[in-house]
Design a protein that fits this description.
3 helices; single chain; Rossmann fold; 145 residues; alpha+beta; 4 strands
């Protein structure tokens, strides 16, 4: 019986002590998680030659040497993804439509997804798989395939 009282006393003391430092532990874990995300993204950008995109205030999308990050990852070692350029420039702040045509299995969907991923990654604050990227602010990405 005395052993149980001693054990309960020790557990209560430990709970009280943990209660005092739990906020510090959570703050430390949060900071460590942020450091992990930023260092992982920096390492990926360095290894894969990603670049920091420039943001523009007008509706321009200019990507030089853009690559699809997922397809690039899963290509065999003896193959490289062929980079693509995109240049969409608008003079007005109105809606606009672009149509991509070509033969079946010609890479239209890959090209569309590649550029959508680059825009999304840039807006998430990440470096992007391209030689150069100038991106206007985007509030939505729509595509019909």
């Amino acid at each position: 019986m005395q052993l149980m009282k001693l054990e309960y006393s020790r557990i209560a003391h430990l709970q009280q002590h943990m209660g005092m430092i739990v906020k510090d532990l959570n703050d430390f874990a949060s900071g460590l998680a942020r450091l992990d995300v930023f260092s992982s993204q920096a390492l990926l950008a360095f290894r894969k030659s990603y670049v920091r995109p420039s943001f523009l205030t007008h509706g321009t999308l200019h990507i030089v040497g853009g690559r699809h990050p997922v397809i690039e990852k899963f290509l065999p070692l003896d193959q490289q993804f062929i980079p693509n350029d995109l240049n969409i420039s608008t003079k007005e702040e109105s809606d606009y439509i672009h149509i991509i045509t070509g033969p079946n299995m010609g890479g239209k969907s890959t090209y569309l997804r590649q550029n959508a991923l680059i825009v999304l990654m840039a807006h998430c604050g990440l470096f992007v798989p391209a030689k150069q990227a100038e991106i206007g602010l985007v509030d939505a990405i729509f595509a019909r395939v």
